[in-house]
């Protein structure tokens, strides 16, 4: 009974396994080298996805094909089982020439699949046998010449390369996040395990948005075949110049030891027992050398250009890329002094983290307040996408108006500043104009009128009667003198107070303090509500206002690049700007505002706030 139940369970498991097998069918054929000398062989690998019959290798005149076994792999993902079978063959010829292996066919269920044709060049027997993936060694050159070179020893386990994704450009701009392609070149027959992510070696560039899942391909480089692991990411720089884009990654790599003694092959006889198969078996049976290495890129220099000052719009805040308006929503009816929300969405490609909300145009009749923004990535590396802005505005003037939204950015492809605008919209604003507080002008002191000169009457009939006692001798003179002195002091105090009120520096300082308090209040409210992005946006705006007073520069124009150019890289202000940018890239909308973030912001504010007197 127990045996019967076990048999039923095995049959049921086999049935379930067969019903979940993936129906996808595919065949791939690959040679481990493109050319071999006559009398030697190449390794042909045929991989078939799905349950299939053995493939049919087409017969080619003078080409010898010898089967070397097969292996099967089975994998289950989300209840679906995939099966793949790999067949290995030794292929070669004793006659030099160019050979074409026609498409290899196999039956997967009721479906016939075929591979791409392959080419194999058989050289004259005088050419030395090249390692897998390499061009043949010309006659007369020692086979180990390259292995003896220092460069080959350093790069034996692989290396990195870094290049701009846009092949037509050889430079980037300050503040631009330029897409780059990072490749790890590993020997084709090696085994590798990456033990870290991509890390920058120098301080000139910052690495952004490296893809989590790299691509893998087989490529030829300098006559060698490599397994290429490709990441996509971005680099940015804060100052102009030429700097090496040095990157590294830690890996454990195992390669074949070509210098190991060759094991003698036992001859079995038969039509396929030719000497050219020996090199294939030597490669397959060579021991592996495993080593923990740090793959590094060559110090390829990338030119970083400063953003031009000529033609820079007043509304430019540091956005670099190419953008356009997707939508702009401005309410049709307003009332002076009452805020409403404006929604705008821009899309394109560039450094979205440095994008601020577009401005109302014309800007004079409006007062705007910072709001919230949300970024949606359009690709894996977050170079393209869209950003949604929501902010509040208050109209200052009533009546019918025509408004639009304006956004300025630098286009690195055109190498010029661009300003885009949303469609002009007609709105109606009710209410009285808000009166701006203006400083009263100092009153003009009029000169006393001079009376015409004339004769003074000396007789009672011709003049008013009065005392001939001098004024200084009269008893009321001290009181008059004291009153005049008091009025003079009071006039001086009023004049000084009036000048103080009208001082432009004082007015600008009060406006700066007010803007800073508003940003600080918004940061406190955002922290209490757990809005991380809004907190960093408001806190950074407060720092920008403080720095604008110190550097005599518009607050919105102060970016991380400007801060790092003026302050030490490890200053609290620079570190807080970097933290704010990092959260822009991570797009963390809500969560707890950590105490260390608040402490860093407090240190930053304290370092740039002048002491009170």
List the topology elements:
Blueprint: H1 2-19, E1 26-31, E2 35-37, E3 41-49, E4 64-77, E5 80-92, E6 97-101, E7 105-108, E8 111-114, E9 118-123, H2 145-148, H3 150-154, E10 159-164, E11 171-173, E12 178-187, E13 191-194, E14 199-200, E15 205-208, E16 215-221, E17 224-237, E18 241-244, E19 247-256, H4 278-285, E20 288-296, E21 301-305, E22 321-329, E23 333-335, E24 340-350, E25 359-361, E26 366-377, E27 384-395, E28 399-411, E29 416-421, E30 425-430, H5 477-501, H6 504-529, H7 532-551, H8 560-566, H9 572-586, H10 595-608
Parallel strand pairs: 2-9, 11-21, 23-30
Antiparallel strand pairs: 1-3, 3-5, 4-5, 6-9, 7-8, 10-12, 12-17, 13-19, 14-19, 15-17, 16-17, 18-21, 19-20, 22-24, 24-27, 25-28, 26-27, 28-29, 28-30
Care to describe what's here?
Helix content is 23%, strand content 35%. By secondary structure, it is α+β, with helices and mostly antiparallel strands. It has 4 domains: 2-138, Immunoglobulin-like (Sandwich), CATH 2.60.40; 148-304; 311-430, Immunoglobulin-like (Sandwich), CATH 2.60.40; 504-608. The strands form 8 sheets. Strands 10, 12, 15, 16 and 17 form a 5-stranded antiparallel β-sheet that branches. Strands 23, 25, 28, 29 and 30 form a 5-stranded mixed β-sheet that branches. A hairpin with a 6-residue loop joins strand 26 (366-377) and strand 27 (384-395). It is elongated and about 150 Å long.
């Amino acid at each position: 009974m127990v045996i019967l139940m076990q048999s039923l369970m095995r049959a049921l498991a086999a049935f379930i396994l067969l019903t979940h097998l993936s129906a996808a069918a595919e065949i791939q054929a690959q040679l481990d080298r493109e050319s071999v000398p006559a009398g030697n062989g190449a390794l042909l690998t045929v991989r078939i996805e799905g349950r299939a019959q053995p493939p049919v290798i087409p017969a080619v005149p003078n080409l010898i094909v010898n089967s070397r076994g097969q292996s099967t792999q089975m994998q289950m993902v989300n209840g679906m089982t995939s099966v793949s079978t790999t067949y290995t063959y030794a292929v070669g010829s004793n006659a030099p020439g160019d050979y074409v292996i026609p498409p290899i066919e196999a039956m997967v269920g009721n479906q016939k699949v075929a591979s791409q044709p392959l080419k194999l060049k058989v050289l004259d027997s005088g050419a030395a046998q090249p390692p897998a993936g390499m061009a043949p060694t010309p006659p007369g050159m020692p086979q180990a010449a390259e292995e003896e070179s220092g460069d080959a020893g350093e790069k034996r386990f692989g290396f990195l390369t870094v290049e701009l994704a846009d092949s037509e450009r050889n430079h980037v701009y300050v503040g631009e996040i330029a897409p780059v392609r990072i490749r790890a070149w590993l020997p084709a027959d090696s085994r590798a395990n990456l033990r870290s992510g991509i890390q920058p070696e120098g301080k000139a560039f910052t690495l952004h948005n490296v893809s989590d899942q790299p691509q893998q391909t087989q490529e030829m480089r300098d006559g060698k075949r490599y397994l290429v692991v490709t990441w996509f990411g971005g680099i940015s720089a804060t100052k102009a110049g030429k700097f090496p884009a040095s990157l590294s990654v830690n890996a454990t790599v195992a390669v074949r030891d070509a210098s190991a003694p060759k094991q003698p092959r036992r001859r079995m006889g038969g039509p396929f027992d030719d000497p050219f198969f020996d090199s294939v078996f030597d490669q397959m049976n060579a021991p592996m050398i495993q080593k923990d290495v740090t793959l590094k890129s060559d110090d390829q220099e990338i030119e970083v250009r400063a953003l031009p000052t000529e033609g820079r719009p007043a509304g430019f805040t540091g956005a670099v890329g190419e953008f356009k308006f997707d939508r702009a929503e401005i309410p049709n009816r307003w009332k002076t002094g009452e805020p409403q929300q404006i929604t705008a969405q821009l899309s394109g490609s560039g450094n979205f983290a440095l994008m601020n909300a577009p401005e109302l145009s014309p800007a004079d009749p409006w007062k705007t307040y910072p709001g919230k923004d949300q970024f949606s990535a359009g690709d894996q590396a977050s170079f393209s996408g869209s950003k949604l802005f929501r902010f509040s505005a208050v109209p200052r003037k009533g009546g019918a108006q025509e408004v639009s939204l304006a956004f300025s950015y630098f286009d690195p492809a055109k190498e010029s500043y661009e300003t885009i605008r949303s469609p002009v919209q007609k709105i109606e604003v009710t209410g009285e104009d808000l009166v701006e507080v203006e400083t009263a002008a100092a009153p003009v002191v009029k000169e006393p009128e001079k009376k015409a000169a004339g004769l003074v009457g000396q007789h009672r009939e011709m003049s008013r009667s009065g005392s001939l006692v001098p004024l200084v001798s009269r008893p009321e003179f001290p009181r008059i003198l004291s009153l005049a002195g008091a009025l003079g002091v009071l006039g001086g105090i009023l004049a000084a107070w009036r000048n103080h009120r009208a001082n432009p520096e004082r007015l600008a300082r009060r406006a700066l303090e007010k803007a800073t308090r508003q940003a600080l209040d918004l940061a406190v409210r955002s922290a209490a509500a757990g809005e991380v992005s809004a907190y960093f946006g408001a806190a950074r705006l407060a720092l920008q206002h403080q720095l604008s007073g110190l550097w005599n520069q518009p607050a919105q124009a102060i970016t991380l690049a400007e801060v790092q150019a003026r302050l030490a890289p490890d200053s609290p202000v620079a570190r807080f700007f970097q933290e704010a940018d990092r959260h822009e890239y991570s797009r963390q909308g809500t969560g707890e505002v950590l105490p260390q973030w608040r402490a860093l912001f407090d240190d930053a504010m304290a370092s740039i706030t002048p002491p009170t007197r």
